[in-house]
């Protein structure tokens, strides 16, 4: 879980006039300029109130407004976490399309190539030591797991999210956060295609992306990312064709 954001020098003092609105604008500003990133856990209402010199009621009203606008969400256990308003707009349409029209997975992959290819190339120039450590941790998780399972999916998504985060581009981080909700449908489509027998190749592909980013080779990082996503597309397309043939044969037999 992402640790709470440090309070010192984060918020500024609020004057009595329209206090909840002022607090809300501070939250929006901190999210917009990247000081509060997707996944960041907000301090408690008590700590925020003390830091800004306002009442907990004012903090609560501001947080409720931010939640209504899709900027934050209150999770089980009471923690308040920053999300992206993009997430709310992308979640339902993409998920529905991928669930109801499985072949649209290939259009989803085309967008991923454009977006994640750029993220990988940019990360090669901007990644910090902490970003590389996060990527390495996800790779270690993948080395201990088998493709197709929930744990592998989590580590896989964690690696790709770490690449986007390493770009240090706020819009890219929010787009990835928005796409996350659609990955569940994506994983359902590829689960049967990328089984344990393909683990070594898949792990090698991810490790290749990491090594290129680590070496600051933007061109190679993009190439490695595209090679990985194109391989995934090829395998899924092949399995979709096999499944379609089986259905056609079954239909002819039944007829």
Number of strands: 2
Helix content: over 70%
Oligomeric composition of the shown chains:
single chain
Based on Cα principal axes, name the global outline. Answer: elongated
Biggest beta sheet summary: 2 strands, antiparallel
- On the 0 to 100 scale, the average pLDDT is 81
What is the structural class?
mainly alpha
The number of domains is: 2
Q: Which fold name is given in CATH as the topology of the largest domain?
A: Four Helix Bundle (Hemerythrin (Met), subunit A)
Supply the number of helical segments: 10
Radius of gyration of CA atoms, rounded to a whole number:
21 Å
Per CATH, the class of the largest domain reads: Mainly Alpha
By CATH, the superfamily of the largest domain comes out as: GntR ligand-binding domain-like
Gap between N and C termini, in Å?
55 Å
Order of helices and strands: HHHEEHHHHHHH
Low-confidence regions = 86-92
List the helices and strands and how they pair.
Layout lengths: L18 H14 L12 H8 L3 H13 L3 E3 L5 E3 L2 H16 L4 H22 L2 H15 L6 H17 L3 H22 L7 H16 L3 H37 L1
Antiparallel strand pairs: 1-2
Helix pairs in contact: 1-3, 2-3, 4-8, 5-7, 5-9, 5-10, 6-7, 6-9, 7-8, 9-10
């Amino acid at each position: 879980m992402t640790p709470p954001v440090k309070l010192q020098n984060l918020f500024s003092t609020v004057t009595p006039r329209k206090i909840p609105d002022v607090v809300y604008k501070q939250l929006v500003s901190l999210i917009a300029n990247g000081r509060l990133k997707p996944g960041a856990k907000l301090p408690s209402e008590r700590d925020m109130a003390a830091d800004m010199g306002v009442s907990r009621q004012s903090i609560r009203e501001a947080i409720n407004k931010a939640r209504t606008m899709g900027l934050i969400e209150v999770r089980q256990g009471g923690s308040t976490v920053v999300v992206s308003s993009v997430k709310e707009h992308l979640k339902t349409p993409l998920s529905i399309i991928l669930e109801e029209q499985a072949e649209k997975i290939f259009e989803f992959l085309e967008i991923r190539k454009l977006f994640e290819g750029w993220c990988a190339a940019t990360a090669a120039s901007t990644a910090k030591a902490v970003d590389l450590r996060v990527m390495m941790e996800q790779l270690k998780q993948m080395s201990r797991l088998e493709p197709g399972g929930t744990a592998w999916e989590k580590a896989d998504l964690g690696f790709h999210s770490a690449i986007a985060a390493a770009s240090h581009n706020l819009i890219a981080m929010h787009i990835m956060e928005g796409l996350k909700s659609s990955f569940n449908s994506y994983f359902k489509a590829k689960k049967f295609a990328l089984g344990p027998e393909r683990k070594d190749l898949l792990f090698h592909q991810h490790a290749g992306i990491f090594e290129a980013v680590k070496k600051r080779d933007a061109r190679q990082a993009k190439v490695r990312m595209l090679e990985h996503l194109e391989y995934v597309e090829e395998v899924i397309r092949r399995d979709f064709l096999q499944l379609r043939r089986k259905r056609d044969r079954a239909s002819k037999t039944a007829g």
